[in-house]
Design goal:
This protein is of the alpha/beta class. It is 38% helix and 24% strand. It has eleven helices and ten strands. The strands form two sheets. Strands 6-7-8-3-9-10 form a six-stranded mixed sheet, sandwiched between helices. Helix 7 links the parallel strand 7 and strand 8. Helix 3 runs parallel beside helix 6. The two termini are 32 Å apart.
């Protein structure tokens, strides 16, 4: 079976600066893949290129065997890809429900489908049902993250792009968010997850890619990455593993 998403030799520039230097990755239907890396590695650039928010200078992105190069962002949403951005970026002066409705802007003529999608979001995030008439700017950080993910789900995507969903959240909320991400995947949505919390990301993903300075430095199954000494030391706290009496290499 062909992968759902294929990125081949992708190059993206900001002016004269090459932000992505020939990225290649793929995501199987129904899977979770994670992209790890430090700030400035190019992770958000990768997601924005897939979403059609940044132009591609070279390479190819295909989704369901269809080429996405040059396709406008709204059309990519219609084809089944939706993104929850880094920093949540909720519309603070709009209510929770108004934010969710904006996530369904490409489906305005399909009222029944929108209602069904909203019910799914409220089922995943019951607090959003309670807060649906509340201005989103008054929500807690965790609630805003839930809203950002819920808004992305309103287009009923086949592929959900998540950019740093745990950023700035307390550990208990991080655990809750990752549990919900796993449930979204169980319901049939494939997920490409950009995340600095490597422990959590590799705990739910089947495959992972490490992005450094605009290039994939390492890739493999989650278990392979977790047992890789370099990955342990850079992203999994190798010293902490040693203190716990576990080896930091295989």
């Amino acid at each position: 079976m062909a992968p759902l998403l294929v990125v081949e030799d992708l190059k993206v520039f900001y002016g004269s600066v090459e932000a992505l230097k020939g990225i290649s990755l793929y995501l199987e239907e129904g899977a979770i893949a994670t992209v790890l890396g430090a700030n400035g590695a190019g992770k958000t650039t990768l997601l924005n290129a897939i979403s059609g928010l940044l132009p591609i200078q070279a390479g190819r992105i295909s989704f369901k065997k269809e080429d996405l190069n040059g396709i406008p962002a709204y059309e990519i949403v219609l084809r089944g890809i939706s993104q929850s951005p880094e920093g949540r970026k909720v519309f603070s002066t709009l209510t929770v429900e108004e934010n969710l409705n904006l996530g369904a802007y490409t489906r305005q003529e399909h009222k029944a489908e929108i209602a069904q999608a909203k019910e799914r979001v409220f089922s995943l995030f019951p607090i959003l049902r309670e807060r649906k008439k509340q201005l989103s700017g008054t929500l807690s950080g965790g609630e805003q993250q839930m809203l950002a993910i819920g808004r992305a789900l309103m287009s009923s995507p086949r592929l959900l792009l998540l950019d740093e969903p745990s950023l700035g959240l307390a550990p208990i909320l991080v655990k809750q968010i990752f549990g919900i991400i796993r449930e979204i995947n169980r319901q049939g949505t494939s997920i490409l997850l950009v995340e600095q919390n490597a422990h959590k990301a590799l705990g739910i993903a089947s495959t992972g890619y490490v992005l450094e300075n605009g290039q994939i430095s390492t890739s493999g199954s989650s278990s392979e990455l977790k047992s890789n000494k370099k990955i342990q030391e850079a992203y999994l706290g190798g010293a902490a593993l040693k203190k716990a009496g576990r080896p930091s290499s295989t």
